[in-house]
Amino acid sequence: MSDRPLLTQREAAAACDVSRTTIRRRREAGEFPGAVQVDGTWKIPVEDLLAAGLRLHAPAPPDPAPDPGGDQGQGEAVASAGAGHGPGQEGAIAAEVERLRTELAQAREELTAERTRRLVAETEANERAEHIANLQMALTALVPALERAAIPAPAAPANPVFGPGSVPVPADPAETAETQQPAPRRRWWGGRR
In sequence order, what DSSP letters do the residues of 20-58 get, joined into one string? Predict the structure, then answer.
């Protein structure tokens, strides 16, 4: 381990601007291999946080000192040319590269998941279209059966089966279709009577 500080889960969550649950889940998932438990408290090295792609709230770098020669344009050019080449900058660059690699891997996983969801949705849409086509064929097959109801039924028997006071059956079914009211609709929740 290095001389960088170890942070508790609460400190790491505050420093990375994430919840403690996120830090705990990532620790349990093994994303912080250097995490140790000291007196019942988990301590996480800063390197592990950076390697896991989390960003710490680091203070802004100090303003460059003005060039004593008076030519500030040349001093800024020299300062910017030397930026990123110091020994402390290599660790920051490596951490940023690792963070970008993690983001790329996550983006690839999300892309794969989206492609899978799209294929599933297309398959379901095709199955539903096929089901609708089957239902339409069944409906067209039933239409002639509905038209058969318009054919006059045979005359009612002299002695009704249902007993006295039953409703006589009219001879023309077309008359019943016009005068008959639809059956009451059932409640949608399927209430019992």
Answer: HHHHHHHHHTTS-TT-EEETTEEEEEHHHHHHTT----P
- Taking the C-alpha atoms of residue 47 and residue 105, their distance in angstroms, rounded to an integer, is 20
> What's the DSSP call for residue 6?
E
Two structure tokens written together for 21: 């649950």
Neighbours of 16 (CB within 10 A): 22
110: left (phi over 0), alpha (psi -120 to 50) or beta: alpha
Are 13 and 49 spatial neighbours (Cβ–Cβ below 8 Å)? no
Give CA torsion, residues 177, 180, 181, 182, to 10 deg. Answer: -50
Rounded CA-CA distance 80/115 in Å is 43
pLDDT digits (tens, 9 = 90+) for 144-180: 655 655 555 555 555 545 455 555 555 555 555 555 6
- CB-based burial of residue 170 (10 Å sphere; 0-12 exposed, 13-18 middle, 19+ buried)? middle
Beta-bridge partners for 45: 6
pLDDT tens profile 13-23: 888 889 999 99
What is the pLDDT, as a whole number, of residue 157? Answer: 52
